Amino acid sequence: MVADIIPMVDPVEYAFPNDEAEAERLDMQHAMQTHLLGDRLFWAPINPNPARVLDLGTGTGIWAIEFADMFPSAVVTGTDLSPIQPQWVPPNCSFEIDDAEAEWTWDEGTFDYIHNRNFVCAIRDWPKLIRQCYQFVKPGGWVEWHEKHPYLLSDDGSLPKDSALFRWGAKFFEASVHFGKDARSPQNLKRWMEEAGFVDVEEHILKLPVGPWAKDQRLKEVGLFESVNMTEGIQGLTIMLFTRCLQWTPAEVESFLLDVRKDVKNRAIHSYYHL
């Protein structure tokens, strides 16, 4: 009997969990972000018949699978550090264990479209990664990133700076700098893309509500998704960064997160962050 060998994600390189609960959170985040984008998988005006598509940091593979179903003529490749993708996938979809920051081994100009979602606290050298995308996308092809900038804000003063939720966002960014994967990086993506040689670069900054407080029905539904993420998933998003990078004890983290969850559930707080 031969046992399967499953590579483990190096906790020094990856800030978040890699278990079944995290896989469920990632799939929920996919549903939320797709809904935020008007129930679309992408915004780039890609060729209606893309031949080769790359999904970097594919996670559970849910985006790649849905894209492959949408474009059956395309060959869709999803890469990730961890093999958590399903075995039963469309025939035009496959997954590879790979580090997006390593040297790529495909031929230059291979892909019509390169996509990524949610590389927050995952990339040390963004300019290098973007230069590789420029090198491996075909002339006339597209690259699209959907990246969170989870610094908590409010427009009506309902999120005081001494609140646990605001302090969580500020501490998350502080910890990300110590971790070597600065969560402020998405603010620089447009400039880095232009410096790499990309043209027709568009940046869309969307508000992502935390909680179902928005009047707009779609944003209300998005906020409900995110409130679940920020209550049920926040322990996994926090524990390693805060204990390793800020030297908090696990008990201090858990006590703090009790107050963060209370703020998330407080309908009087109208908080959001940017995507």
UniProtKB/TrEMBL annotation:
Gene3D superfamilies: Vaccinia Virus protein VP39 (3.40.50.150). It comes from the Eukaryota. InterPro entries: SAM-dependent_MTases_sf (IPR029063). GO terms for molecular function: methyltransferase activity. This is Methyltransferase domain-containing protein. It comes from Cladophialophora psammophila CBS 110553.
